[in-house]
Amino acid sequence: MVFEMKHITKTYDSVVANDDVSLHLNRGEILSIVGENGAGKSTIMKILYGLEKPDSGEIVVGGRTQRFNNPSDAMAVGIGMVQQHFMLFEQMTVAENIVFKNELKNGPFMDMNKTAETVRQISERYELKIDPLARIADCPVGLRQRVEILKILYQNAEIIIFDEPSAVLTPLEVEALLETIRGLARAGKSIVLITHKLQEVMAVSDRVYVMRQGRVVAERMAADTDISELAMLMVGHPLASYEIDPPKPGETLLETRGLRLMENGREVLKDISLHVNAGEIVGIAGVSGNGQSALIRCITGLEKSTGGQVLVGGVDVTNRSVREIRDAGLAHISEDRYVWGSAPEGTLEENALMARQDDKPFSSRGIIRPRAIRDFAVRLIRDFNVKASSPTQKMRELSGGNAQKLIVAREMSLDTPVLICCEPTRGIDIGAMEAIHNRMLRRREDGAAILLVSSELTEIMSLSDRIYVIFEGRIVGEFERGSMDDRHLGLLMVGGSIGHEQ
Amino acid sequence: MTYLAQVINSTIREITPILLVALCAGVCSKVQVFNIALEGTLLMSSFFAFLTHYFLHNIFLSVAVAMAVAMGMTLIMSTFIVRLKGQPMIVGMALNTFARGFTTFLLSVIFKTKGAVNPSDLKGLTKFDLPVIRRIPFLSTVFGSLTVIDYLAFVLAVVMFIIMYRTVIGFRLRALGINKSAASSLGINVPRYQILATTLSGSMIGLAGCLLTLGRNAMFIQDISGARGYVALAANNLCKGHPLGAMISSALFGFTTALARSLQGTAIRQQLLQCIPYIATIAAMAFYNAYARAKANRKL
């Protein structure tokens, strides 16, 4: 046993985040902790890593009771954590990032040769290939994560905690990550994986704890369980699988014709022509950064395209203002909920009002009517089961999932013929995800045309009637529901073609 | 020929105070403490350098006091910004306004004047003549009557480069400026580093202050800093906090200031001449940004 946590309890104000949690980890083992957002899995790991202090309970590492005041204390006994949000120095090199705080010195000077050499040695020992002299700014996300792992290995960690490591990765990078995790375990490291992605849990773990509402509700050997059992344990009830009727053919409500965008002298969108019909969900599948964001920005008016047309409900709205495009009948659940989707410092009421501040009954002759806004906000909160203490609460105080639900509620309440959903369920738990998916399907039943962009391939596959695959700013494939499996789709997403595969 | 040598000489003297302040600004910007109190700090330290010298006739003590005052001002600035989370703009403006009022007040209380104090019996900083060069006609004028601090400014630029880009401490400072939370996640006490680094680098403003009041003859004029703090801020912006780059960008501003001065007495209006360094500032920034953007575009 490399560590044991006994009867840990932690409360924030009146919320119990961890309620008498006990768990342990064996040497060389890959342990997963699964649970919905807010189930307490991150809290328990923050306690283990010294970021939070427990109210009661005991942590035993290497046979001794430990008291961690900060991450340095945890690091000192060999516990390292790969955070969900990378902690890197962008303009510096890989090697510099890895040795920070434990620099290799030559008197007062940095010994850069030795640094690069040491980093190269660690990277070879654990088969984590990396160029020590590359700048972080030039590294893709997968490599940055690798730097985070190397950073921990450099500090001689024996226990490595991964917090939602695949949340930011492309499917190929996830494969590489899982292989890395297996390799680390083979090298004798003990691994804790916090995640809500059950496929990954089943792919790598030896043992699984399921957490719900701050408690450990189950412990299973991975060999003795399966995804559906884990999902049921997480949510507390069986998961709905979506039963989707075949689409009723409707008229085209959203269309782009030869859409182009030049950005900094680079063509980010190359001749994109697509259409979405009434009563249809159309997915855009692609590795993020292949033009999805640019496409949505051009459609919604957040950016001016440099060629081609956008039509909403048959009306040409190319390069019109956001307001005009929305008035033409389009709502937009944006990709970043705190940058485009809401004002984190605003109240829930203000955020609910956005986009309809000029409409009756919320204002008349330029004067806002608070009563109507309050009623409306309360209705959205209730309808979508948003967990909030009051409509005058600040948006940023909501958890990610609840903030997202409010944004979805707002955009859907506009009842527009066209709905754009970008990453509608990114980083939120299964319960909230199900709720949002069901609403999308209901809007589809009502005859809305829905364009869905998501980095979760399973989300695209399970909801879409049709899928466009985008690669380097170009549509490289179009498929009907059921005519494609995820392996082929994955291949197209990285620029392969189907013919070449065999 | 002698005229040219004199222009170069006065350019060098214009460069060095700006360079010293820009070096401090460089450290501040590298550790992400936005310091616009440079101007007030420069004014305060130049006043106290003069004051100490006036009463005690001790040049070493004057320099020490100027450095201490500058470090004190910088310490206040960084404590307010880093520890007390003050708005950098407000903190900086407050200190600048304070420095201006305080020096003017002391000037009128101690010297009973609102303009200039120019005691003829008081000598400035010791001049330092380079051994061989003083015998070469042209160069002797170029490097004539420069003080130790003038030479030190350029040495310090190189020293600061070595500290910031070659030593462990400099590495940590640059890194924490790039990502504070990453640095603190590894157990670095970021505020302490920020305050220590800015305060220590503030001592260079003290040296600049000495140059202003004791550089030629000992004298103090109200507002003697003359926006050099802001110019240094711009110079630092231009070189992105790089100490060696600061030599070039300070030289640009030093040159334009010297140019403006040497054109005095010609047909061009005085007020227009005084604009030259500031117009050069704006032009240089615009030009540099356009260049940087073009370079970034090419890279893509």
CATH topology of chain B: ABC transporter involved in vitamin B12 uptake, BtuC
- Overall mean pLDDT of chain B stands at 91
CATH class of the largest domain in chain A: Alpha Beta
- Under CATH at level 1, the class of chain B stands as Mainly Alpha
**How many domains of chain B?**
1
Q: How far apart are the termini of chain A?
A: 46 Å
Helix percentage of chain A: 25-40%
The CATH topology annotation of the largest domain in chain A reads as Rossmann fold
Order of the strands making up the biggest sheet of chain B:
1-2
Q: What's the total number of strands of chain B?
A: 2
Rg over CA atoms of chain A: 25 Å
One letter per element, helices H and strands E, the order of chain B comes to: HHHHEHHHHHEHHH
What oligomeric state is this? heterodimer
Q: How would a crystallographer describe the biggest sheet of chain B? A: 2 strands, antiparallel
